Nucleotidyl transferase (Picrophilus torridus), 311 residues
Amino acid sequence: MIGAILAGGYGKRLKPLTDKLPKSLVEIKPGYTIMDRQLFDFKVMGISDIYILSGHLGEKIEERYGNHYNGLNLYYLKEEKPLGTLYSLRNLANEVTDDIVLRNGDIVTDINFKEFVNFSLHNNYGMTMFVTEMRSPYGIVDTLLDKVINFKEKPYLNYYINAGIYLIKENIIDYFYKDYNGKDIEVTIFPELARQGLIGAYKEKAFWVGVDSEKDLETLRLEYINREDREWGYIKCIFEDDKKLVHEYFIKAGETVNVSEPYALIRFIDGRGTINDRSEFYTSDYALEIKSSSRISAIENTRLEVIKIKA
């Protein structure tokens, strides 16, 4: 299995940042770019050969990462002029004969990639697409006849959108070479695969941002204040003063983490799992005082706060 990143766009909505940098190299915190995070995800999946499908300022990506980065082997397929993502995929298919984990170059998410790959490989679909709940760009007004009864600030809607992450199996590569009326995979290959019943949907509630505007980038940068990514999730300092220190942990389903902050209170925000291998489960709103290291095993994606009162 190989990984691939679609990184050929102009990023016009992020100008002037993208006048001298491809969107993938925009920083989400000092020294840490969108592509840094994406390459980290591939390493967590155990995928070591990554193809960068670049275009606009693609040489900047090669300058930053070279052919080897953090234990990964990087290969570059650059378009000299924009020909669309269908061309990029055909170009990639000419180079490889493997299953492909493909992702858009502007996506940052906390989904459990190990579960995504496992789900994809154990179903009968030729391609699996990660889909995420659509969030309303506007606040919603609830009414009863002519009376306003409630407001909901940009709620999630009962619809799913393409989240820009796919596992494409080698046995459907022939679909890349059919004649289509269009240049992008979203309007060519994907509709054809859907008509053939060859696309499966992977759903998971997890942080997801597609960086398409300055507002999206601001959202992502706010998320990454005092945050450090880990193979199992992340840890983030969300509050500290002279008397109190609060860390937020996000632990992906199936992962186990040692929380080593003695004499602290653990408060579970959401998720389900076990503590110190006991038979009973914790769930959201469960709190526990710890005096030494505790093993947290997540059955579902879990967020918790560790609150330590300083001496």
